[in-house]
Design a protein that fits this description.
The chain has 247 residues and is mainly beta. The chain has 2 domains: 96 residues, no CATH class; 105 residues, Zona pellucida, ZP-C domain (Immunoglobulin-like, Sandwich). The protein is globular, with a radius of gyration of 24 Å. The two termini are 39 Å apart. The model has no long low-confidence stretch (mean pLDDT 85).
Length: 247
């Protein structure tokens, strides 16, 4: 997925949300030869590399990929001793519909003396459920953390996974699997088949209404890395998912 963001002399920085100082060059935009565009190319074959969210509709095969970029600007306003800094977010999305093979079967012959009823339709009604948008956040001492989070190992935190306001009344969520990695070689499973592997380190996800999940955990790190990346599989179900852990 290629994203091109117009930039100017006032553009200070462009980066993926919560990955401002992430060391992987593949997750950082580069400036095109004209100097007017910040270009970011995300590999959709490895969505975990740059924290891209992938949503798969098992009924239709449609796949949706999305991520959020942050654009920081710095402008010199008249009458102000220091430049004015602004921050805006840009949500990008890519949709793909895979082609599926269909089998045509011959219908059974209708019985003798079969008559069809004459039906009259006054109007047609077609409705589509909204495409769910997942959100993920981390709270420290009850406060939602924005941007990158630097904490000491053992610090109590809470992870939250939730749906957007439009989708929340229609769908429910269930975290089936989750791994944690140092973004290099080390990786450990912390949620397996919906259950925590080590509740002391990372508790089970709890929910009240099915569309907002929360799990308490303690901050930790790998010995040879300062980064910890969570990657998981979240089921989106109509109404509520079976297998919730209720508080």
């Amino acid at each position: 997925m290629r994203v091109e963001i117009p930039i100017s002399a006032t553009t200070k920085r462009v980066y993926l949300d919560r990955l401002r100082d992430y060391p992987d060059p593949a997750c950082r935009p580069h400036t095109d030869p004209t100097g007017t565009l910040a270009v970011l190319e995300l590999d959709l074959r490895d969505v975990y590399r740059c924290a891209v969210t992938r949503v798969v509709n098992k009924q239709t095969g449609k796949q949706i990929y999305y991520q959020t970029l942050v654009i920081e600007n710095e402008e010199n306003a008249e009458g102000l001793p220091t430049p004015k800094e602004t921050r805006e977010t840009l949500h990008v999305k890519c949709s793909m519909l895979s082609l599926r093979n269909h089998t045509i079967m011959r219908r059974d012959v209708l019985p003798e003396n079969f008559t069809e009823l004459d039906l009259e339709f006054q109007s047609n009604l077609t409705k589509h459920a909204p495409e769910p948008i997942l959100g993920v956040g981390v709270r420290q001492a009850g406060k939602l953390v924005t941007g990158e989070l630097n904490v000491s190992p053992g610090t109590p935190l809470q992870m939250e996974i939730f749906l957007d306001k439009t989708s929340a009344p229609i769908y429910g969520l269930l975290v089936t699997h989750m791994q944690v990695t140092d973004t290099n070689l080390q990786e450990e499973t912390i949620i397996y088949n919906g259950c925590s592997v080590d509740p002391y380190l990372f508790e089970n996800f709890n929910t009240v209404d099915g569309d907002f999940l929360a799990a308490k955990f303690r901050a930790f790190k790998f010995p040879e890395s300062t980064y910890v990346q969570f990657k998981g599989t979240v089921n989106v179900c109509l109404d509520k998912c079976k297998g919730h852990f209720w508080p």
